[in-house]
Each structure stands twice: as C-alpha cells, then as structure tokens.
Amino acid sequence: MDNPPSGSGNALVNPLATNEQLQCSSSQLDGISNGLENSVRFAACRLIQAAGVLLGLSQDIIAQAIVIFTRFWIGADGGSLRLESAEVNNSARNLSADPQTPRRLILVIKYLRTHPRAFLFPSSPPSDEAAFDLSVTETEYQEGRSRCMRAETELLRIIGYDLHVCLAHTLCINYLQTLGAFHSNEGPSVAVQAFAHLNSLLLSPQLVYLTHQPTALATAAIYLASREVGLKLPELPWWEIFDTGREELGFLVASMTSMGAFVKDEEAKWAGKVPPLTVDAIASA
Questions:
Q1: pLDDT tens readout for residues 128-162
Q2: d(CA 83, CA 278)
Q3: How much is the CA Rg of the chain, to the nearest whole Å?
Q4: Other CB atoms within 10 Å distance of the CB of residue 115
Q5: What is the pTM of this model?
Q6: Please, what sign has the CA dihedral across residues 205, 257, 218, 173?
Q7: Residues in contact with 1: Cβ distance below 8 Å, sequence separation at least 6, in sequence order
C-alpha cells in the first residue's frame, strides 16, 4: 500500500491501496470471480460488524477492524480465498482498549455460524444475550484459539503489521462545527445521517476506505446528509476547504447512494443461502 507522507499530520491519513493492488487480487489470480469475491468480502464484513456488537465493542473499533480486514485481501500478495477462510476472525479483538478473551470470541463465532443469514440480512436477528448462553468444549476452545492465532499472524504478516486506521467520523463532527451546522436544528440529524453513510461505506465493493482519505469521506458524507436532511450549507464550494475536489466528491456521493441497491442485490443473489466463507465452501461454490 502507498504509505502516507512523512510529517506531523500522519495520524489523520491512511495508507492507500495502489493501482496494482486494486487491479488484481490474489483471490482473482486463484480463479475467484470478482463478483464472488465482492460477495464473500461483504458477508465477512457484515459478520465482523455483528461480532463486534455482540462483543460490546465500540463502532470505531469495529470500523477499524473492517478496514484492516479489507486491506488483507487486496493485491497479488494479499490473502486468497482459496487458502484463507473469510470467517469472522479476531481482527478486532486486540484493537480494543479492553481486549476480548479468546473464549468470548470463540463463543461469538460459534453463535454466528448457527445464525449467519440472520446477521447478514437482518430483519429480526437473534437475541444478543443468546450468544453467551452457548458453551464450547475444551477441544472446540483449543482448536478455535489456534485458528484465531494463525489467522491473526497471517493477517498481520500480509498487511505489514500496519494497524493504523484514521476514521472519518471525528473529522465529520469537526467539519460540521466549522460549517456552523450545529447552529441549526437540522445539525444533529445531519451528523447522524452522515455517520450512517460512513458506516455503510465500510461494506462498499468499491473499497473507498482503501482509496480515499478520511477527509474526503467525511466531506462527502456531510454533503449527502445535508441534502437529505435539508440543511442549507454555504453556496461556495466549501468542500475544497477540506481538501476534496468536485470530482472526488461526486464519486464518493455516488458510492454512498448506490449502497442500498448493492445490499439488495446481494440479498437477492443469496436468497435463502449464505455466501461461502470457508476454503472448502469456496472450492465447492
């Protein structure tokens, strides 16, 4: 990945995927179609989201885990679905200030395996408390712990041990304050809607968290949310203040507005089924 430029502002920028990494993944080189790869990645990220909620992790930790997980699969040197399971792993476990125990993670993974579609395309997902009503045998625990450790080691190796992720959410609030949005009654609603767009983009097949900096993501989320809510922003090209050009803004807004159709298409494509998330399931897909 392209490393951010050196300087004091590094904490606000992310390493971005190179053109070569975006053009062809290890999975595609191993014969996985782009459509199947998108479906598997979407399903895995959705389940990471569900696992984070069940584990009581904050949304920023869940979002960071999804970005890191997505980085793992890009490029010819990335992980391949022919060799690596895309099931929920412990990519989020050690990012938290209160790290989760392996046993809690293994319980959640077991629970998600029993109700995968309910969390992928939720209408009335199972009770959160039920996850911890399950039990695991000592054999299940040891095998699950070993799988998680191997998955974490491989993930860290592939991404070069770079766990830095700057999210756009805090920038979004700062930008809204700069624009004076909270002087209006619509300001809080714009913030909520903008956060919803930023969270949905984590599942985007266009991998925008790997191709655009958080400044642009925050700006686009504000632009779209303000139009949806009806908040009037300055008529001048205010987005340029936040280092976002009109073309980039338009692309990201289009990505956000297309997410609903993408999710509906995925649900229809896998009606009554679950995308293959394991090496064996991929092989027989």
A1: 566 666 788 899 889 888 888 888 888 889 999 89
A2: 9
A3: 19
A4: 15
A5: 0.90
A6: negative
A7: 15, 16, 17, 18, 21, 71, 74, 159, 160, 162, 210
